[in-house]
Amino acid sequence: MLRSKEVRIPLLLISIAWFLYVLELSLDIHLYQFGVYPRNRLGFFGILFHPFIHGGFKHLFSNTISFAILGFSLFYFVPKIAGKVLLQLSLFSGALVWLLARPSFHIGASGVIYGIAAFLFFLGIFQKDPSSLIISLCVAVLNHGMLIGLVPNEKGISWESHLAGSVVGFILAYLYRGVETTFSHKKKQIPDNDLYKEGYQNLENNAFKYHYKDNSK
After folding, report:
1. What is the tens place of the pLDDT at every residue in 111-125?
2. Which of 84, 142, 159, 198 is deepest in the core (most CB within 10 A)?
3. Domain map of the chain by residue range?
4. How many CB atoms lie within 10 A of CB 62?
5. What string of DSSP letters covers the chain?
6. What positions does the domain Peptidase S54 rhomboid occupy (predicted)?
7. How would CATH label the architecture of 4-188?
8. Which are the contacts of 72, defined by CB distance < 8 A and separation ≥ 6?
9. Longest alpha-carbon distance in the chain
10. Alpha-carbon distance 96 to 59, whole Å?
11. Rounded-to-integer distance, Cα 122 and Cα 128, Å
């Protein structure tokens, strides 16, 4: 099960995004200018802030659901590096958008969401472990509709962020392919008592001992 610390981090990030949205509504301001604006010096700072800024309630609500599911999954399956992966996905995908995307303000957590999905999917593939492949299967089934977001298909959607997040997620999955997952950790917890190694099971314990009696004499 998720520990409280692992639950708090995704919830904290979601809370920050909602706080900023409520702040926009309360003060009648717009924070989109704090997003990533490619190849612009001020827009560079958007790499730090863009995941928390959204274009409206629908945008924020949609990203909240997706990020909650994938964020909790990330912390459950790879708790030792989940925080590091989340930070790297945000910074590196934002940097790619700043370098390569079309001139416009790019905001929202979609790039990070795509990055988590790609990371979990390819981690299962790279580890070549049947138990880890469950991660890939679950991600593929739950997020198959995300593929259409990797290409230009709708005005006002930063497909560049989606693609950048997916690329970074793929690279990080390869770099961390040796990480211990929850499944591999559980396998190591199974005690090796040599119970079945020679075709028999040793039932002896402190209360029960075998006593051999030689009747041949």
Report:
1. 999 999 999 999 999
2. 159
3. 4-188
4. 16
5. ---HHHHHHHHHHHHHHHHHHHHHHHHT---GGGSB-TT-TGGGGHHHHGGG--SSHHHHHHHHHHHHHHHHHHHHH-TTTHHHHHHHHHHHHHHHHHHHS-SS-B-SSHHHHHHHHHHHHHHHHHHT-HHHHHHHHHHHHHTGGGGGGGS--STT--HHHHHHHHHHHHHHHHHTTTPPPHHHHHHHTS----SSTTSS-----SS----------
6. 45-176
7. Up-down Bundle (1.20)
8. 2, 6, 7, 10
9. 101
10. 22
11. 10
Half-sphere exposure (CA, 13 Å, Cβ side) for 59? 18
Q: How many residues does the chain have?
A: 217
Residues 166, 150 contacting (CB under 8 angstroms) = yes
The residue among 21 and 211 whose pLDDT is bigger is 21
124, 136 in Cβ contact below 8 A? yes
Q: Is the pTM for the entire model greater than 0.90?
A: no
Q: Which residues make Cβ contacts (< 8 Å) with residue 41, sequence separation at least 6?
A: none
Nearest in space to 115 (alpha carbons), one of 57, 73, 79, 152? 73
The mean pLDDT of the chain is 85
For tokens 């075709």, what's the residue?
Answer: 199
Whole-angstrom Cα distance, residue 176 to residue 109?
Answer: 22
* CA atoms of 213 and 207, how far apart (whole Å): 19
